[in-house]
Give the backbone structure.
Amino acid sequence: MPRTSDKRERLIDAADMLIHRQGFHKTTLADIAKESDVPLGNVYYYFKTKEEICDAVIEERKQKLTSTLDGCCQGKCPRKALLRLLRSMMDASDKIAEAGCPHGRLCTELSNEISDLTHSADACMKVLLEWSSDQFRTLGYRNAEDLGFEFISRMQGIIMVGNTLHDEKQVKIQLKAMCEWIEALEDISSSDQALA
């Protein structure tokens, strides 16, 4: 017999996959129950609403994203960390072309709503922005927040257009161009200058 936490985790995993694939609004509690193989009546024991499940999904995504970004920071070299993230995305270009970004998709879907869920959904994007800004800051750039914003905006744009057109080849080409941009950046951490 599965443990209680197993059912909760199955519900979160199923909701994560369904929300990514078909969106938050199109996903029902019945869909989540069916996908997780948990009886619909039992869903309410763990989550009272679909919004509660979505909050749990977002928290799970945030933890996984943080772990992934920490893994990119091996060796303490910020340029290599940025490149590791881009290269990991190049390795997943087929999945990106097929399904897009789960964080960006949910943020976009909920962006016109005023709710706690909307503010919760943008948490993953904020993690990405803060992390990328930190990498540019460590490289010595005074405009680290601007560069972090540009980095994530370019990356998300590539993901969105690549997914819309289902064009794995262009995803790889554009991520490679981003790698070239990062490789060409000057490490100014030892100087007092910053690029405009």
Notes: The two ends are 61 Å apart (CA to CA). The CA atoms of residues 18 and 29 lie 11 Å apart.
